[in-house]
Amino acid sequence: xxxxxxxxxxxxxxxxxxxxxxxxxxxxxxxxxxxxxxxxxxxxxxxxxxxxxxxxxxxxxxxxxxxxxxxxxxxxxxxxxxxxxxxxxxxxxxxxxxxxxxxxxxxxxxxxxxxxxxxxxxxxxxxxxxxxxxxxxxxxxxxxxxxxxxxxxxxxxxxxxxxxxxxxxxxxxxxxxxxxxxxxxxxxxxxxxxxxxxxxxxxxxxxxxxxxxxxxxxxxxxxxxxxxxxxxxxxxxxxxxxxxxxxxxxxxxxxxxxxxxxxxxxxxxxxxxxxxxxxxxxxxxxxxxxxxxxxxxxxxxxxxxxxxxxx
Amino acid sequence: xxxxxxxxxxxxxxxxxxxxxxxxxxxxxxxxxxxxxxxxxxxxxxxxxxxxxxxxxxxxxxxxxxxxxxxxxxxxxxxxxxxxxxxxxxxxxxxxxxxxxxxxxxxxxxxxxxxxxxxxxxxxxxxxxxxxxxxxxxxxxxxxxxxxxxxxxxxxxxxxxxxxxxxxxxxxxxxxxxxxxxxxxxxxxxxxxxxxxxxxxxxxxxxxxxxxxxxxxxxxxxxxxxxxxxxxxxxxxxxxxxxxxxxxxxxxxxxxxxxxxxxxxxxxxxxxxxxxxxxxxxxxxxxxxxxxxxxxxxxxxxxxxxxxxxxxxxxxxxxxxxxxxxxxxxx
Lengths: 311, 331
Prior knowledge:
The complex is a heterodimer of chains A (311) and B (331).
Chain A: H1 18-33, H2 36-55, H3 92-128, H4 130-145, H5 148-159, H6 168-198, H7 202-209, H8 214-250, H9 261-269, H10 277-304
Helix pairs in contact in A: 1-10, 2-3, 2-10, 3-4, 3-6, 3-8, 3-10, 4-6, 5-6, 6-8, 7-8, 8-9, 8-10, 9-10
Chain B: H1 2-30, H2 36-40, H3 49-66, H4 72-84, E1 90-93, E2 96-99, H5 100-135, H6 140-153, H7 157-171, H8 187-220, H9 224-231, H10 236-248, H11 250-273, H12 279-288, H13 292-320, H14 322-330
């Protein structure tokens, strides 16, 4: 479907010859019309990895904690063990998939928390304006003034690592909450900015005039229009959180008992010279996942014209 | 006149945000479960009553010193009073304390060097790439650069850091992969030690800045004043660098200010990988050593740094873009 004419710049670019300008338009606009190879690749990868992570317990995989005597220090492609084994003989394929489970759980969990809380607060700030906006925006600014990783690190350190025996579940929950709190102001600010502009539109005014309640207006009139902006930031956010999980592992406050992509990379790093696949496999998994999320997030953003400067 | 008032108002807001940030940090840290004193004074696992006596006395002294018997607002007021006077609290060790200020004085310059080098490297690489890809938008070079930027953006900094440390530092042995040399020990040595950390920290920023500048530049190049400049016969090169770059760099400037937060987070990771004695290291040590007063001061210092940078960027807008200056003066 061609773009409406009015959205194309009418004055021909001077530095760029008109035919090149057309190409620019095509390049810039193509993600909005179809996904392209990279888009489809991203979707496929995400579907595969999320599917594998969710279905891991019922897939015909080895137990990630089981050690196989013949599998120690074996490089990829062994009979029955596609990705080889680690130093103690764990099956790498099952570890990377169970690692995906934790890494993706943290990523999606934290962003879901930030999405619901930040989204609601942003909608309220943007719709009611006035004092509510002042208070909430100041809150967002205060949280944003602390560098994100420093805040996450402090939160995890305060709530989890004081107890060395904290169970894995507790550590994961603390990690999700900490990274969720960090993402609240980011999603809150985006939602607020988007809400501010949409709540001035005629259909919102009309709903107010016919006496609809604020809650109805917010959820039925404003929210559907604000969602795309929230979606694109959420996709980018999940990628950031998955990386942050690895960074926190490196800083000594991550999950330790169960495999995650982050702690797999760190555990394997000491044997990078002899067993490079221990580091490469989880690194590639993180890279492809982050790449896919970034790419799709970018497509959504280009499609709905979410300005980065609003961040 | 209006400008001065606007600036005053912003300074007031700045002070409020800084106050709330430190209050939030203090509240967060006071919520730490368990008795901080037990964590501060290493538990003497001894039956010797004399040692136990000493430990008890030390604990009492620390408790008194930290004001732990007082309510939170009083404690916070004390900390804030000391903080604004340059007393950042103490680092507690068995039988002794070190001022946290000393730690900040030695660690902050290292982190600042790392961040400034990374920012400079990122901008030096990203600006020419952004300008050229905008000028040749849609060309093969543009698409290749864009694709590599996307790839670069998706490599987590700790993965890049670990790979560089191993392959360039250990395997090839070209550059040192851990430690720090003060600039006074020789600038060449200093930069050799800072090279890998700087590259690690700058990599993702290059991609971000390049993409931003390119998209703004593509828009600027379609504006009337560019057509005007061109029709006067000014060379493409001059139009690009003298006429188009400045109005295109507003978003770049904003984001490079906001990115200081990302850089600080990245510095935490990079300093850990390359064993640099910066603030990231100090925070890591403070958390592991349960030095929560020190942690509180470190976080406050970083937050102040971050907020001040963004305040400066906001003031710089008016310098860069006269349109904003006029808009602000009239509103």
